[in-house]
Fold this protein.
Amino acid sequence: MAASSGFSVRKALKQPFLLFCFFVSGATSLALETAWSKELSYLLGNDLYGAATTIIAYMGGLGFGAWLAARYYHRVKSPLATYALLQILIGAFGLISISMLRSLHPFMALVHGLPGGTGVFLATRLVITFLTLLPATTLMGMTLPIVLGAYNNQRDRMAAHAGRLYGSNTFGALAGALLAGLILIPHWGLQLSCIRVALLDLVLALLLFAFDLWYKKAEKSEEPTATKTTVSTKEKGIPLGQGLEIRLSYALIGAVALGLELCWFRLLSPVIGPTTQAFSITLAVYLLGTAAGSTCASPIVGRVSPKKSYPVILALAGIAAVTPLFYLEHLPSWYKSLWSASEGQGTRIELLLAQSVQACALIFPGTFALGAAFPLAVDALSKRVESRVTPSVLAANLFYWNTFGAVVGTISWGFFIIPQWGVN
């Protein structure tokens, strides 16, 4: 009886513990990425091409990590221990990341002298940036499906669980972006900030290993009555023909979302400035909308038909994306009015508030709908694929389709559409 009671307590604590850990790892990942973005701005510049290069490097690595997780998840014996190992490797990269990025300066100088014009120059520095960040971004991209497997890898309520985890991680990313941009980097600089954040990743990994051992100890004492997660060793992924229209539409969401992010970056920079603080606020609002949308949509998953809810949220995402066009030209005057309310003597908090209001007016409507699309897309796809496909593989599959779309969208918008047509 005592053993059974101990296992029940640990089982009840497992999901809240994982939500907390995934929140923390979201915070550490975005804190590192914010610092890397700032360091890369010295290499690539603060222009549209530099921002697009950084985004492609991030999203490409995240997508590759999700693809690896989908492809090889059937070999994972302990998702919780695997998650801990991923955090160790991410932390190890974080310790050396700024030094590694700074070592690229001589290579970037050589790139300027390559024959072939602007196209060769932009493509070469994109490849260099992508390969440099690939180890860390790949590991980060693997975490969502792995954590979902540790959280609950059964098909029952899978979409709600995926949305809840995605929301928790994104809220953590929001906290990490603000913490890095407003506190860590201004006070400690880039290198020391990355080192301290990386150490937090290592501490988190130790907590995960300790909990895993504690949980397994009680689980063994409960055998054979404890319910275990089983994963088919034959599982390889989702056949291409199953739910293809859902995956394609979610890839399109990724393309549109990143195109909008680049537009917002261009529109907000002249208004609130190109500083690390302004970048962090812009990114934080993007993450806030995404996290809020995913969290709010998770409870309704399973209560409404995905055949109806998913197309509706896609339509709402399109409407929300174009809504700011109706008041876009007023944003500079609104910002001026907000700042003038303090008679030009506002505190730093008041300045941050004015910048945040501007970013919310432009970014929040579209990102809320885009965030809500994730659990609904998971639910819709789960109804179209074979029951043998686990939630981890299904979520990973959707995620890498989305990031593939994001990469294609960033290339299209950042290097062709915006330079040719502008953002208005």
About this structure: The chain has a mean pLDDT of 86. Residues 158-222 form the longest helix (65 residues). The radius of gyration is 22 Å. Residues 116 and 122 are 10 Å apart (CA to CA).
